[in-house]
């Protein structure tokens, strides 16, 4: 049974930083591409970032490129998203997701709010 548990969200001022974590279980994490997906109020899910299992190559949505960094620890089954220089438009629930893109199962999410 796939389990994904996110943590690390919170309220931060514009320009601030947060580091999201995702603890994964129930599947072979080291052999699985992983993603972060966010959903803002009233909007559909948005694929923010992804990291491949084979070579840790990455994808970033254009608006977060250069500000967010995705990484993984295959020994601990943990996925991270380092978010720097946060903007109000980054406010959303952030979900850890199994697989590349929007197709895989997601965790319940952690709320990120960027506000003065």
Tally of DSSP β-strands: 10
Q: Order of strands in the sheet with the most strands? A: 2-10-9-4-5-6
Task: Tell me about the largest β-sheet.
Answer: 6 strands, mixed
Task: Give the CA-CA distance, first to last residue.
Answer: 40 Å
How large, in whole angstroms, is the Cα Rg?
Answer: 13 Å
Give me a quick take on this structure:
By secondary structure, this protein is mainly β.
Protein architecture, described:
The chain is mostly beta strands. Helix content is 0%, strand content 47%. The protein contains no helices and 10 strands. The chain has strands spanning 3-7, 10-12, 18-25, 34-39, 46-51, 58-60, 68-73, 78-83, 92-98, 110-114. Strands 2-10-9-4-5-6 form a 6-stranded mixed beta sheet, with no helix packed on it. A hairpin with a 6-residue loop joins strand 5 and strand 6. It starts with a strand and ends with a strand.
Layout of strands and helices, then pairs:
Layout: E1 3-7, E2 10-12, E3 18-25, E4 34-39, E5 46-51, E6 58-60, E7 68-73, E8 78-83, E9 92-98, E10 110-114
Parallel strand pairs: 2-10
Antiparallel strand pairs: 1-3, 3-8, 4-5, 4-9, 5-6, 7-8, 9-10
């Amino acid at each position: 049974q796939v389990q994904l548990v996110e943590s690390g969200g919170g309220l931060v001022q514009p320009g601030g930083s947060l580091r999201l974590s995702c603890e994964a279980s129930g599947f072979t994490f080291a052999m699985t591409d992983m993603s972060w997906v966010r959903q803002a109020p009233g909007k559909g899910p948005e694929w923010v970032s992804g990291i491949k299992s084979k070579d840790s190559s990455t994808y970033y949505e254009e608006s977060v490129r250069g500000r967010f960094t995705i990484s993984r620890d295959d020994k601990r089954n943990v996925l991270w998203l380092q978010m720097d220089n946060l903007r109000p438009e980054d406010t959303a629930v952030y979900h850890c997701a199994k697989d590349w893109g929007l197709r895989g199962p997601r965790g319940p999410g952690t709320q990120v709010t960027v506000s003065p």
